[in-house]
Every structure is written in C-alpha cells, then in structure tokens.
Write a structure and sequence with these properties.
The protein is mainly beta. The protein has two domains: about 325 residues, Jelly Rolls (Sandwich); about 70 residues, no CATH class. The chain is about 10% helix and about 30% strand. It has six helices and 22 strands. The strands form five sheets. Strands 3, 6, 8, 12, 13, 19 and 21 form a seven-stranded antiparallel β-sheet that branches. A hairpin with a 2-residue loop joins strand 15 and strand 16. The protein is globular.
C-alpha cells in the first residue's frame, strides 16, 4: 500500500501503511492511558507549517508549537527565532528529531513553545489537587543538564547580573518539567513546584528528583550509525497518591541518595527545612530553631517506621546506656542518639533524591495570563545559560504517573530508530 496523506480538521497528518513502524509506534504512545499530548516532530498543521501534537480522540487542542527567543521577548535583545533554528535529523524513535544547538550568541536562546493563552485550563495545564503527571522525552544528549520539556517559567525577578538589563520582570510560574540532570548531570530530573517560585527560603525551586543512571554525552554531528544507537528515554513521574516524584532513564529509576545534605550548595536548604520542621514540634524555642521559618516550607517526610536500623555504637555504664542508631526511612537517613532508650537527638545524614517526597499539589497559576508556557528544548530562566544541547525525537505528556512497565515499553522505541515517513 502506498503512503497516504489525510487532511483532518484543517491539520495535516502523515499516515503511512497502517502496519508501518511509524504508525505502530504512534499508536503505542497515543493508546497509553492518560495521554495529553505527544509531539513526534512529524505531525504538522500542513507541510512546512508548525508541529502539532497527537492528542486523544475528541480533544479540541493539538498544541501547535511556536518558535521563539525568550531573550528577545523579555530582555528586548537578540534576533527572532524561527523553525530554521531547529535543524531536522530525518530519523529518530518516531522518524524525526529536532536539534537544540549550543548557541554562541548570548542574546539568542530559541525554544519551541505553546503560549499560555493556548493552554490555560487545557489538559496540558496539569495543576491543583490530586493531579499527577508524566513527561517522557526521547533524546540524544550532546551536553548540558538543563530543561527538556515542561511548564517551567523560572521567573526573571531574581537578583542576578543577567537581570540588570531586563525589560520585562516576571515572577516564577513553575508547574512541572523534565530536565537532563541539573544537580546530577545526565540523569533524568523531574522538577515540580507548589508555589511557582522558590523552596525552603532559597531563591530557586528545589523539589526535584534524579534517576540513578545517567546519559552519556554524544556529539550531535556524529555519524548516523552512532546517533542511531545513542537514543535515551528520559522520563519523570509525579504520583499524587504517594507524593513521590521519580526520575526514570531508559525505563529504570533506581535509588539515589545525597549524603551530608547540609554540605550541598542548594539542598542544604532542604536539610535546614527538615531541621526547622522537627524543632518546631518541640515546645519552646530550641537551639538552632528559626521561629520565623514559614511552616509551609518545612520538609519532613514520614519517619514513623524505619525500613532499616543499624546500631552504630552502644555503651553501658552503671545505670546508664547510650546508643547511636542509623535509621533509614523511605526518604531520609537519620542518626538517632538514645540515652536509656529515650531519644535525645536526631541528625539528618542523607536525603533520598529518587524518589523525592513532594507533599504538595502542583502549582495553580492565576487565571490572568501570567502562567508559564509549555516549552521544548529550553525553559525561561534568568541566567540565560545555553542549557541542554542535542537531539529531541519525541515529547509526550500524560495526566497520571505511568508505571515502570509502561515506561519500559515506551523506551523500547529508542533502541531502533526509524526514518521519517514520506508524504505522498
């Protein structure tokens, strides 16, 4: 059967033989329960026009992607962006891929995006009580650890050197996004926010997870054979039932812990939030307690029942005993000191980064147009760094937390890339 070109509701979709690898793969993604949108960079409004998403039957919005340069939009500097700034590979897990380049012009940070006005209160605008999310991105990482896709406007109101010349100051409007590692470069890093802005009195949002495995760096101009075997499947899930945020790379999550979080440049703020929440439960002002610390920023994962207890030391003297235990809970490791079996101190010694405990609802922006756009390749942020570079061959968003088995099935397409289906 020759490939056919159907025009539905004013949008052009490439439909090859129904049994073709392209159609089978698209069907596998779109038939996964909870799908909101799936961009494969093959489906367009019409040949040569904007990329659109595969969406569930009956959906009214297929989320066409605009090209933009957020530096021009917010700083008033730099050139406009167009689709020409995103070269196409001609192959990938779904037959096509776009390139995110290491732009040398500091005033040029191109991205593809769905403007807020076109996604407000749509299924892509995942937010509020009980809402869960999965983001999957098939990519080849050339360099960087920053954003792949999501609703993550970091804000341009931070006091940094790069914001001194900004023309348009905007508060952070973060909801959910998938990154290529951040604090653990190359991992799959899920990021969520309950307030759109900062966490634990730090200026940045700090609720994030990191997969145990990391992706390699592969030059984006490598030969076709090298690129074909270099596809990685990045994913994040937030399960609102368990309050767990999990990073997945190539269908696996794995455990990741941060030892001595008090020494970390950013997550020391989470360690302090743990301490302040614990001290606030004790009557009176305790040594080290900050009475002004906001209660909604405490970070106290469940620590009722340890999953493992290791005795570090035990001393008996006359009628007195002193014992130190390392108690591992689901999300924390705590050193506990007991005197005559009564707890006298607790010290946080490790935070679990995968999964990460997030006890909040996803941020709900005001319905006044100030929420963030959905972006691919980059997010809006004040530092204006280059971020992730490489190839992106598909982006899918689901309104639930996918299982490990489902993510493994979606990763299978990365192993055998296919050529772009031809329109006839």
């Amino acid at each position: 059967m020759k490939p056919l070109l159907f025009v539905l509701a004013g949008a052009t979709t490439l439909w090859a033989d129904p049994a073709s690898p392209y159609q089978e793969r698209v069907h596998a993604v779109t038939s996964t329960p909870g799908l909101v949108a799936f961009w494969d960079f093959t489906k367009r409004e019409a040949p040569g026009q904007r990329f659109t998403a595969h969406v569930p039957a009956g959906a009214r919005n297929d989320y066409p992607l605009d090209a933009g340069n957020y530096v021009k939009d917010l700083w008033g500097q730099g050139p406009a962006a167009s689709y020409a700034d995103f070269p196409l590979l001609g192959s990938g897990p779904f037959g096509q891929a776009i390139r995110i380049r290491a732009e040398t012009n500091p005033d040029f940070r191109p991205l593809l995006f769905v403007p807020r006005a076109r996604l407000q209160d749509s299924p892509l605008d995942i937010k509020g009580p009980g809402q869960a999310v999965t983001v999957v991105v098939w990519a080849i990482r050339e360099s960087g650890n920053h954003a792949l896709a999501g609703i993550w406007h970091e804000g341009t109101d931070l006091k940094e050197k790069s914001t001194e010349t900004i023309a348009k100051v905007e508060r952070g409007q973060r909801q959910y996004a998938l990154f290529a590692g951040l604090n653990k470069e190359g991992s799959a890093c899920g990021h969520v926010s309950e307030n759109g802005a900062s966490s634990f009195l730090n200026k940045y949002a700090l609720h994030k997870c990191n997969s145990a495995e990391t992706s390699p760096k592969v030059p984006a101009d490598s030969d076709p054979a090298t690129l074909a075997k270099s596809w990685q499947t990045f994913a994040m899930t937030f399960d609102s039932r368990t309050h767990e945020l999990t990073g997945w790379l190539n269908g696996g999550s794995g455990d990741r812990w941060l030892e001595n979080p008090q020494q970390d440049r950013l997550l020391s703020f989470a360690a302090n939030a743990w301490l302040q929440g614990r001290l606030a439960k004790i009557p009176g002002v305790q040594p080290g307690e900050d009475p002004t610390f906001p209660a909604d920023q405490y970070y106290n994962p469940p620590e009722e029942t340890p999953v493992k207890v290791t005795v570090l030391s035990e001393v008996f003297a006359e009628q007195r005993s002193r014992r130190e235990e390392l108690r591992e809970y689901r999300y924390t490791r705590v050193k506990v000191t007991l005197v005559n079996d009564r707890e006298v101190s607790r010290e946080l010694v490790a935070l679990r980064l995968n999964p990460w405990w997030f006890p909040h609802d996803l941020y709900t922006p005001k319905a006044d147009g100030t929420g963030g756009p959905f972006t691919i390749g980059r997010v809006i942020h004040s530092s204006r760094s280059v971020g992730f570079t490489g190839w992106i061959g598909g982006v899918a968003v689901f309104q639930r937390a996918l299982s490990a088995a489902e993510l493994a099935q979606l990763h299978a397409f990365a192993a055998t890339p296919i050529a772009a289906p031809a329109a006839k």
